Amino acid sequence: MEIIWAHSAAALWMCVVIAVAAASISYTVTMTELFAPLRSWSQKLGHMVGYLFTCFYCMSHWVVIAAVLVYQPRLIHSNMLAVDLIVSIFFTITIAALVCGLLFRVFLSAMAMKLKQQEMAAVMHK
């Protein structure tokens, strides 16, 4: 029983790491200028593919699914690998969504501050 708890604790940590990484990857791909050409190209492939590369919430799902399938953290041990991985995927997606929301709030705050600075600079130049 103690071994299962040790594995579950390691899996929990792995899910948290995957969630934070997925949020960061998703936000970077969907919001930064670095990936603007990729987003532009994906728009030409169709609405849904284009949407995937502009929605950090949507992108985070696919990043989490890929990472959980590669690393296979098992938060529960039901003797059915598929069920265990589905639970891990949805748990990790939830954490990633929370992190994405936090990143988005920080982004909005930074943008609001930048706009205020630009407005102040414009007023000062008049």
UniProtKB/TrEMBL annotation:
Pfam families registered for this protein in UniProt: DUF1360 (PF07098)
Q: Which InterPro entries does its entry note?
A: Mycophage_PG1_Gp7
Q: Which residues cross the membrane?
A: 6-29, 49-73, 85-108
Q: Which UniProt keywords apply?
A: Membrane, Transmembrane, Transmembrane helix
**Record protein name field:** DUF1360 domain-containing protein
- Source organism of the structure: Comamonas terrigena
